[in-house]
Amino acid sequence: MTRHIVDRPKSRDNPSRAKAFLKIQRDVHPSDATRRLQREPRRHGVGRLKQFLRIERGRTA
User: Fold this and answer.
1) How many Cα atoms sit within 13 Å of 60 on the Cβ side?
2) Angle 46-50-54 (CA atoms, 0-180°, nearest 5)?
3) What is the pLDDT along the chain (61 residues), one digit of tens a residue?
4) Is 5 left (phi over 0), alpha (psi -120 to 50) or beta?
5) End-to-end alpha-carbon separation of the chain, Å?
6) Could you give the C-alpha distances from 57 to 21, 51, 52, in angstroms and in order?
């Protein structure tokens, strides 16, 4: 007996399902690099103030 034309083996690794699973995992568990950046305090310096003062004095790039 021959197989019917629509009888095809189903793939076990569905790429769209795997993509959805990975997206959920990334949303729930952020990467270590992301966590490190979030924990690191912002460095406030006087660099921005220096740039504003330089522009105020009339000096440009």
Assistant:
1) 0
2) 175
3) 677 877 777 766 667 888 899 899 888 888 888 888 888 887 777 788 888 888 899 876 5
4) alpha
5) 82
6) 55, 10, 9
